[in-house]
Each structure stands twice: as structure tokens, then as C-alpha cells.
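User: Before I run my own analysis I want an independent prediction to cross-check against. Here's the chain; please return only the C-alpha cells and, at the end, one sentence I can use as a sanity check.
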Amino acid sequence: MKYTLPELKFATNALEPIIDAKTMEIHHQKHHGAYIANLNKALEGLEAFETWSIEDILENLDKLPEDVKGAVRNNGGGHYNHTLFWESITPGGKPMSEAFKVKLEATFGSLHGFREAFKEAALKRFGSGWAWLVLDGESLKVISTPNQDAPLSDGLKELLGLDVWEHAYYLNYQNRRADYIEAFWSIVDWEVVESRL
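Assistant: C-alpha cells:
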């Protein structure tokens, strides 16, 4: 299967001032686009994997030939992670349900406790990577992954991810990753996040 760049559900300037149009354009077209091109190249000629979804591939990295495994993990993860990211954000955000708020509070003590745990995961990721809210079995957890590693490859279900690679925020926020993380909450589409449960 040839993977293609998914369309954004909003215009590149629709998230301003949280994420500026230039960052969105570069991030979506150039970075996500490059992950897809490199993923397709890595899988070229591997007919056994032509019908596999990206989820199937990331859940079964051990079945790939050794010489392409790294490229597929990096670029397949980049494609998958970014697709989830674009789906999880929307202009103005969408509120979470009371039921989901209760679920977060039961795990993290409060909504503030969840946000602090998520912020810490995002801030402590040295270099490039992601902060995630995931489902581990029936339990909610906040984790961080390096580079483009997808929690799916470790048997976790991603609910919400925040890209903390510098290309995701540097034009607007420079080295102020904490400001980017704080601004992110105003564009989260909690309806989409909750639908992944």
C-alpha cells in the first residue's frame, strides 16, 4: 500500500495564534510529507506488507526485514503520530465530556494533575519526541517517547499526543516549549480524543 499525506481538516492559518500558518505548512507538507515518502521508499518491493495498515506495521515491527526496520519505525511512526496529532487539534478546541474528566481525575487526582503530568512528560523529553496520554489495558497513563517512536509499537493505545520536536513550535515559541505546551490545551479536540477509548 502506498501511504499518502492526509488532508488537514482546517486551513493552515486556522490555529493562529496558537500555531502559525507557516509552521503548519512546513510541519504538515514538508515534515509529515517526508515521513510518508521515506516510509513508501523503505517498503518498496516488500510485497508481503503491501496490504498492511500503518497500525499493523507498527504493531509488528519484528516481522520486518532487519535492513528496513529502523527506517519503517522512524518514518512509519512519523506518519502515524502526525496523523493522530492533526486529528486531535481543531480551531478553538472542543471540550471534554464530564465522564472523561472524571476518568482523568480518578487517575491523576485532578484535571490540573493530569495537565501537570503531561507537561512534565513534554518538558523532560530531551531533544525530539512526543508526550502522550495513552491507554495501557484499562489504565490511563502519561508517557513520553523519543523521536517518532509510536506507543502502539509497545502495545499501548494512543489517545492524545503532543509533538515536541522543535519544528512543531520554534517559529512561534523559539525555546519556550512550556508556552507551546500551555497553548496546546486551547486547540485540543476532546471529542476525537475520547472517541479513541
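Sanity check: The mean pLDDT is 96.
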